[in-house]
Amino acid sequence: MDEIWGKSLLREARDEFRAMDEGLPEDEKQSRMSLAHYNAVREAASDMGIGSW
């Protein structure tokens, strides 16, 4: 998988999740996302072999 494409995909998912999770209490979020969304993005990055994006 092209790393640039993968990073772009991760950023788009992050932004969509942040928009979806705006109304959640801050103590239920990590990096402005629900914990489930945060973990999903991190797992996807790991699966793609992307350490920082």
Quantity of strands, as a count? 2
- Count of runs of 4 or more consecutive helical residues: 2
What integer is the average pLDDT? Answer: 95
Number of domains: 1
Query: How would a crystallographer describe the biggest sheet?
Result: 2 strands, antiparallel
> What would you call the shape?
elongated
* Low-pLDDT regions: none
Helix content: 55-70%
| Strand line-up across the major sheet | 1-2
What is the SS-derived class? Answer: mainly alpha
Secondary-structure element string = HEEH
- The separation of the N and C termini measures 15 Å
**Beta-strand level of the residues, as a percent range?**
5-15%
Radius of gyration: 11 Å
What is shown here, in short?
The chain has helices at residues 3-20, 35-47; strands at 29-30, 33-34. The chain is mostly helical and 53 residues long. The chain has one domain.
List keywords for this structure.
two-stranded antiparallel sheet; 53 residues; single chain; 8% strand; 2 helices
Please characterize this protein's 3D structure:
- This protein has helices spanning 3-20, 35-47, and strands at residues 29-30, 33-34.
- With 53 residues, the chain is mostly helical.
- It has one domain (3-47).
- A two-stranded antiparallel ribbon has the order 1-2.
- Strand 1 and strand 2 form a beta hairpin.
- The protein is elongated, with a radius of gyration of 11 Å.
- The mean pLDDT is 95.
